[in-house]
Amino acid sequence: MTQRTVTAAPLNVGIIGAGAISQRHYEGYSHAGANVVAFAEPHDVTRLRRETEWNARGFADFAELLDSGDVQAVSICTPNAYHAPAAIAALSRGIHVLCEKPLSLDLSACDEMIAAARDGGAILQTGHHLRSSPLVQTAKRLIDEGRIGRVTFMRLRQAHDWGGAPEVRGAFGSLAASGGGTLLDNGCHMMDLARHFGGDVGSIYARMSTLKFEIEVEDTSIATLEFTGGGFASVENAWTATGWEESFAVYGTEGALECSNRLGKPRLRFVNRESGFGQWGQTDETWYDFATSDNAHVRSVERFIQSIQEGAPIVCTGEDGRESVRLVLGGYESARTGLPVRW
Description:
Layout: E1 12-16, H1 22-32, E2 35-40, H2 44-54, E3 57-59, H3 62-67, E4 73-76, H4 83-91, E5 96-100, H5 107-120, E6 124-127, H6 134-144, E7 151-160, H7 175-178, H8 182-185, H9 187-198, E8 201-209, E9 220-227, E10 232-238, E11 244-252, E12 255-260, E13 267-272, E14 284-288, H10 296-310, H11 318-337, E15 341-342
Helix pairs in contact: 1-10, 4-5, 5-11, 9-11
């Protein structure tokens, strides 16, 4: 096993896959003081455009980028099916990896990625960026401090309609390229958030359907989770919901935490009865409002750089990413059989 070293020198980084989400990574690296010096993108038009926009060297093949010796870390922003090959290739060379979600499409590939990071002495961070949101961080702190008592139930939702587009964007509707629909694409974020707030999950029961788009994957899903420590969660995802919603509500025996962007700028509401018993709808409230609550992607990239340069804890590990994949795959199995999946 190679020993990982900590460095404070500016990092030269690369991006594998130059589609839409890659811009968030580029912005994050720029904000963190890292240099995006190269990227890999097989499509000529996109590669030429990004070379101009990013002033970086473009490669058609990610192996050529990794072999160039130009980068110490990479973000992987490819379609889902290519996450594992690119990550394993980088990690086996000792190159740190921030991999977009889902980590991979099967658990054995996730295990290979985790092993490659361990053997190569490199960092593997899963791109569940919501963990880096100040709203989520505050909610997590209040839960850990016991401010809402024992967590009993939570509701997590990420849903949209592709901006009203008549078709699903890019490879997202292809089973071979994406591996799944909204349960995988959006649900893996919510599965990670459920674990982040509530701990390990012991069972899942899911239902899903394709109700709007002519695609090979589901566009609407709902899953019920039961935590090993008690309590439940409802995970709701859709590409059929007009507008855009990203929200969570965590209910406990002594309080509740609620956050949504559905009606405007997201703020965190902490509801409790610290002043004593009252009417059903009359509670004590504390609101948390952050000026930069919408930059979780940037913050996630910054945390990746801090882990490399300062040895800071990895905000979302490869093992965390594997667990969200395990839950999503369990959801697909449950929907297929019509039965809960238990572990």
